[in-house]
Design goal:
two-stranded parallel ribbon; 1 helix; about 70 residues
Length: about 70
């Protein structure tokens, strides 16, 4: 299954046209992206809170190639 994801801001303009374009292809489904974009503007999270933490422990030194 292939999903053609249309941004919500462009849904009025593109959704019907894309559904018509892909109507004969059973492997394509046109959907509207309804996720919130950018998170909550009143409570922004610093970027480091979303990143994975560094692995604990020490790592052996690596010699550069000659």
């Amino acid at each position: 299954m292939i999903y053609c994801v249309v941004p919500q801001a462009l849904a009025d303009e593109l959704y019907d046209r894309l559904v018509e374009y892909y109507r004969d292809d059973p492997n394509v489904e046109v959907i509207i992206d309804r996720r919130k974009q950018g998170g909550d503007p009143t409570n922004p999270q610093p970027p480091d809170r979303r990143r994975r933490r560094r692995a604990y422990g020490s790592f052996p030194s690596i010699e550069p190639p000659a």
